[in-house]
């Protein structure tokens, strides 16, 4: 913003400080003058024979110069003291301004770190430091994400390139197999791109909210994935109360599908179980997806939501996802003002809980 130059706060503070000092001085002298007039003999306005007031004249003559000197001193003292005091008061402000300019210039690692005991300036500086720390962490996370996403996207492209190179140097090869492999690699690239798009869409929070029943969504997601569970010899058990929430049907379905899909593909190789439960809590609703599987430690579990983080999996199946499933769940949950909690299930496997605010009662 372009602003016209104006007097500095230091000057304004100095002027008001000096102004108040002078005003106080004048008032004090006025009171003293009144008192003197009253109690000094001959000063109380009694006229001497001859028509004048000798007491007053005498008082004025001896009092006025002293007042003049005192006021002059107050003026100098007010300006000088005010200037110095205001300068000292405003030192933290210039440090804060300096830090703001640096941040605006792109340096987020700088901190103000104002020393001293708490006051308004220190509170502002601390709040500013906290904001910078948060911004810095967010930017670092975004950069990490972009680097990971580029890396993940490059993989299928590089594989495609290799397949094409091999085909060019060996024209006698079976093209049907090549096409199948190219198609598989391409599908993976599309999946990844779609997951990335979904992630950014959920993060933008720009969806319309409608009243939906989470237990119905859970039922639909489970039904769609039933064939996959069947292939792997898994049983899925669903339990559902009526669980109304306000949100995007499509996004909540995606969230539930990701959780149930994970519970199926990261399960035991055979005879595993998946439990899907929608329940009502005071003021909130919860969706719990639990599954049997490998023993997981709390340390490993805490990293799983990170984008592109895949757990320690010995067997890589074709259903291995792109590593964004839980990141998408978290993003959708957050966009719905809810929370995602992951915990190792006792006996192996994972326990994922999504809590969302309950929809207000319908109708009026
Ligand atoms: N229900 C689950 N049971 C066991 N491990 C899981 C479960 N869900 C996720 N994981 C682990 O978390 C990792 C990340 O999950 P996700 O973000 O969905 O990525 P992806 O499924 O694409 O690998 C998985 O690779 C897996 O190791
Ligand atoms: Mg997944």
Total strand count, please?
Answer: 7
* SSE pattern: HHHHEHEEHEEHHEE
Radius of gyration: 38 Å
Using the alpha-carbon principal axes, give the shape: elongated
Looking at CATH, the homologous superfamily of the largest domain is: Histidine kinase-like ATPase, C-terminal domain
Q: What compounds are bound to the protein?
A: adenosine-5'-diphosphate, magnesium ion
* Count of helical stretches: 8
* Low-pLDDT ranges: none
What does the model show?
With 364 residues, this protein is of the alpha+beta class. The chain has three domains: 9-107, no CATH class; 141-204; 210-357, Histidine kinase-like ATPase, C-terminal domain (Heat Shock Protein 90), CATH 3.30.565. Helix content is 59%, strand content 12%. The chain has helices at 9-39, 54-104, 120-169, 175-204, 214-231, 249-265, 298-303, 325-335; strands at 210-213, 235-240, 244-247, 273-281, 284-291, 339-344, 350-357. Strands 2-4-5-7-6 form a five-stranded mixed sheet. Strands 1-3 form a two-stranded antiparallel ribbon. Helix 6 (249-265) packs antiparallel against helix 8. It starts with 8 loop residues before the first helix and ends in a 7-residue tail after the last strand. Bound molecules: adenosine-5'-diphosphate and magnesium ion. Magnesium ion binds next to helix 6. Magnesium ion binds at residues 258, 261-262, 321, 325. It is found in: Cell membrane. Its main location: membrane. It comes from Amycolatopsis thermophila. Keywords: Kinase, Membrane, Phosphoprotein, Transferase, Transmembrane, Transmembrane helix, Two-component regulatory system. Residues 148-360 form the Histidine kinase domain.
């Amino acid at each position: 913003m372009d602003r016209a130059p104006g007097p500095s706060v230091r000057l304004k503070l100095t002027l008001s400080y000096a102004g108040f000092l002078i005003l106080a001085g004048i008032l004090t002298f006025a009171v003293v003058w009144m008192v003197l007039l009253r109690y000094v003999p001959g000063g109380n306005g009694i006229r001497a024979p001859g028509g004048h007031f000798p007491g007053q004249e005498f008082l004025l003559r001896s009092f006025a110069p002293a007042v003049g000197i005192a006021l002059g001193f107050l003026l100098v003292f007010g300006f000088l003291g005010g200037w110095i005091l205001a300068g000292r008061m405003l030192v933290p402000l210039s440090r804060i301004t300096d830090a703001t300019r640096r941040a605006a210039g792109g340096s987020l690692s700088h901190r103000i770190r104002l020393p001293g005991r708490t006051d308004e300036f220190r509170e502002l500086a601390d709040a500013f430091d906290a904001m910078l720390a948060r911004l810095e962490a967010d930017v670092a996370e975004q950069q990490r994400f972009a680097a990971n996403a580029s890396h993940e996207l490059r993989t299928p492209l590089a594989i495609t390139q290799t397949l094409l190179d091999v085909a060019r140097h060996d024209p006698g090869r079976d093209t049907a197999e090549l096409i199948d492999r190219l198609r598989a690699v391409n599908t993976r690239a599309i999946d990844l791109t779609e997951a990335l798009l979904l992630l950014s869409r959920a993060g933008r929070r720009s969806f319309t909210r409608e009243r939906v029943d989470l237990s119905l969504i859970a039922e639909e997601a489970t039904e769609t994935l039933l064939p996959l569970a069947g292939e792997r010899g898994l049983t899925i058990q669903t339990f559902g109360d009526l669980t109304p929430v306000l949100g995007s049907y499509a996004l909540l379905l995606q969230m539930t599908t990701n959780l149930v899909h994970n519970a199926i593909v990261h399960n035991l190789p055979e005879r595993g179980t998946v439990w899907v439960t929608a329940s009502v809590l005071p003021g909130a609703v919860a969706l719990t997806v639990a599954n049997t599987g490998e023993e997981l430690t709390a340390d490993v579990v805490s990293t799983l939501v990170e984008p592109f983080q895949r757990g320690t999996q010995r067997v890589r199946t074709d259903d291995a996802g792109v590593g964004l499933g839980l990141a998408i769940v978290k993003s959708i949950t957050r966009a719905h003002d809810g929370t995602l909690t992951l915990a190792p299930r006792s006996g192996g496997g994972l326990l994922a809980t999504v809590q969302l605010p309950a929809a207000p009662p319908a109708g009026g």
